[in-house]
Every structure is written in structure tokens, then in C-alpha cells.
Amino acid sequence: MLREDIQNRLDSLTKPKGSLGFLEEIAAKMAMMQGGVIPELPKKKAVYVFAADHGVVAEGVSAYPKGVTSEMVLNMLSGGAAINVLSRHVGSEVHLVDAGVDYDFEDNPNLIKLKVGHGTHNCAVEAAMTPDQAMQSIENGRTVARMAIEHGVELAAIGDMGIGNTTIATTVAAAFGYDIDSIVDIGTKISAEQLHTKAQVVRRAMDLHRPFTNPIDVLTKVGGFCFGEMAGFILEFTSHHLPLVLDGYPTTAGALIAWKLDPGITDYLFAGHKSWVKGHIVILRDMGLRPILDLDMRLGEGTGAVLSFGIIEAAVKIMREMATFEDASISTGSEQ
């Protein structure tokens, strides 16, 4: 009944029915989340960037050394990264979450220290973490989400930072049954030889750890601390019926873990953009999520997610501020 009332409201606005396309779907989804016909504009927006290191980097799967993870976190904390620039542009806060960086950061008001460990083990050789660490990472993510809600965040995005993240995203997806060749791709620029190495590393991890019994088993054997914390954040934030925007391939792999634990999360998820990394859209389609933007981005950090904030807000404003045919005394005729 509510969905029908929302659609009637959209159809009553001074435009041909459906003429605002996907913008109307976004507006309707926001209204459904809030349980009313006309949604409220989110008062506070924030992106949470989950950072961690991965033992698999030792296999030569990235163009950058492991130390770049901590260096980029420091850059974000100083306000110099792309996510800082784009967040300032859309009026969003930026919070960094140390889920498992192999570095000990000084205190910072924008840094949340919930480190499970100083990086994972090499999943091509052994389990990435223990089952207890996997569960701790999920709970840490839930803690961050509760902090966000207490802070008044009503529209959140998640981003990722970690050398080797696309490799771990691919191992997670492969563990859930995705064909490796359909999802393996570059994150940072690497050579064809390095890309082949990445695919072989993922296959080694699959051969070593199969079978995978459940999402926590996947996280334990081939995941990362930031992936577990992203999954936990998603599970907790969406349980409060609040909108959450995914960024690219790694954040969507984190969402895949959460989705396998609770398929209902997609009612509260938006895909901020379609990453240039080919595996991203494969997972999004299975989750029933349509990307809002398509800009050939593959940076991560939450950059594509925060850029979509303005589109989501515009959709809400359409519902709130656009006149109806009745308000404007415009004849609709028999058909729009």
C-alpha cells in the first residue's frame, strides 16, 4: 500500500509519468526506507573509509608496496586525498577506520581505531585470519555503524583503502562461486603479467581453502579485516532502516558478505557508481543494485559513493519540492 501511495505521488508531479527515470526509483526507495510518502532530506552525511593491509600483497599482485596503505590513510587524515576533496564538495564528513593497517597511528579526531590485527596472513598460503578475528571484524563494523547513528548520520557511504584490496575482493567473490575470469581485473595499473599472477594467486587460494561452508568461513579463509568491518557496518546501519551507499569493487565484496548473511540489506543499499573494474557490475547485478553513476572510476576510498550523494538528495527534493498537477492547476488530460 505504501509503495502504491509513493508511486501515486510521483505520478502526480508536474511531469510525464516516469520521465525522470531512475531518479524516481531512488526517490521511491528513500521514501520506502523512511516509511512515508514524502521522504525527509538526510540532515547529516558521512563516508567511513575502512583501511587494512593484506598478506597476499607478498605475492606481487599490486603495483604498490604495502606501506602505501598507511601513507594514504595519513594523507586522508590531513585532508589531501580525493575522498576529502569530493566530500567537501558534497558536504560530507570523512572518517577513517583502522581495521587492520600494519602501522600504529597517532590519535586523530577523524580516525576510529578498531584494529583486529596488523594485516592478515597470506590467503594463498594459509587462512587470512582466525574465525574469532572474523567475528571480531564483523562486530567492530557494527560498532562503527552504531557510532555513526549516535553521531546523527542519516546517509552514509563506505569506502576502502588497502593495497591488495581488489585481489581480496576477487578471492571473496570467487569463494562465493563467481567465475574468476569474469571478475579478476586491475585495480591499480599493473602489467598483463601481474594480472595473470593475480588470477593464479586467487586460484591457489581457492584450491587451498575449498570448500567454503558459510560467509564467516569465506571471510576467515580469504577475506580481510576491512572487508569484515565493512560487512558489519552494512548489517548494523541498514538494520536501522537508514540508506547506505556502496562505492566500488572492494566495498561491494564486503557487501556481498553481508548480503549472504542477510539478503534484506539491499532494501537500504544504493550502488554509488559502476567501477571500471569488471567484476563490480557482475556482483551488483546479482544483488539487484543499479549503479547511480558510471564515470570509469576505480580509485576506491568512497569517491564514487560520495559523488552520488547529490543525486540521492536531488531525488528526495523532487518528491518534496516539485508541484503536483493539482497544485499548479495544470490539466493532465486522459494520459500523461
Produce the secondary structure layout:
Blueprint: H1 2-12, H2 22-34, E1 45-52, H3 68-77, H4 82-90, E2 93-100, E3 111-113, H5 131-150, E4 155-161, H6 165-175, H7 180-183, H8 192-209, H9 215-222, H10 225-239, E5 244-246, H11 249-261, E6 269-273, H12 279-287, E7 291-293, H13 303-307, H14 309-321
Parallel strand pairs: 1-2, 1-4, 2-3, 4-5, 5-6, 6-7
Helix pairs in contact: 1-2, 2-14, 5-9, 5-10, 6-8, 6-11, 9-11, 10-11, 11-12
How would you sum up this structure, described in words?
This protein is of the alpha/beta class and 336 residues long. The chain has a single domain, classed as Nicotinate-nucleotide-dimethylbenzimidazole phosphoribosyltransferase (CobT), large domain (Rossmann fold). Helix content is 47%, strand content 11%. The chain contains 14 helices and seven strands. A seven-stranded parallel β-sheet has the order 3-2-1-4-5-6-7. Helix 11 links the parallel strand 5 and strand 6. It is globular and about 70 Å long. The mean pLDDT is 95.
